[in-house]
Write a structure and sequence with these properties.
The chain has one helix at 2-20, and strands spanning 24-43, 46-64, 69-85, 88-107, 110-127, 130-149, 152-162, 166-178. The chain is mostly beta strands and 180 residues long. The protein has a single domain (23-178), classed as Porin (Beta Barrel), CATH 2.40.160.20. An 8-stranded antiparallel β-barrel has the order 1-2-3-4-5-6-7-8. The radius of gyration is 22 Å and the shape is elongated.
Length: 180
């Protein structure tokens, strides 16, 4: 009976680290597509519609506290979109910083995750010889998966930015993560 208990105890002690998943610091970068749709009123007595996609990128670093919880922060540029109103071309660019809580489900070689974040953003609007800036902070949420390849991973992610006045502001990206 004692032998059975000892074997069971050792089996549990040696397999728990395998099931525990990674912890510690990680960093990475991603590139992909931004999806932007909004409308700005009263530009030359017209409504300016910004609706387009552009190349977007981000860099981030994080700390995985447990197998299911991480915190990460980073910088991102969501690209720019152009539109015409009253024979003038306008361009909008959005970039900013975020700080997120990330919930992970560790499945061995694959991680599934969801995230909620605060996003501190700056928008630059240029057109008709004028420049304007706008800034604020809003909520971001997203989900994705990471394929683990040793200390490195390939990360696919979709994120939605909840900025007031935007019908759609999202980012779909593929990137590399180090330190897993």
């Amino acid at each position: 009976m004692k032998t059975t208990w000892l074997v069971t105890l050792f089996a549990i002690l040696f397999t728990l680290p395998l099931l525990a998943g990674p912890r510690g610091v990680y960093f990475g970068g991603s590139g992909g597509q931004s999806f932007i749709k909004t409308e700005i009123s009263d530009i030359g007595n017209e409504d300016l519609k910004l609706d387009g996609n552009d190349f977007a990128y981000k860099f981030n670093a994080g700390l995985r506290m447990t197998t299911s919880l991480a915190f990460e922060g980073g910088y991102r540029h969501l690209g720019s979109v152009k539109s015409k109103a009253s024979d003038m071309t306008f361009e909008s660019k959005i970039s900013g910083y975020d700080l997120a809580a990330v919930g992970n489900i560790y499945l061995g070689i694959v991680d599934l995750f969801v995230k909620g974040a605060a996003f501190w953003w700056d928008q630059q609007l240029e057109g008709g010889g004028e420049k304007a800036t706008n800034s604020g902070s809003n909520f971001v949420w997203g989900f994705g998966a990471t394929l683990r390849l040793g200390e490195m991973g390939i990360k696919a992610e979709w994120e939605r930015f909840e900025l007031e006045g935007y019908d759609r502001l999202a980012m779909l990206s593929l990137g590399v993560v180090f330190g897993l």
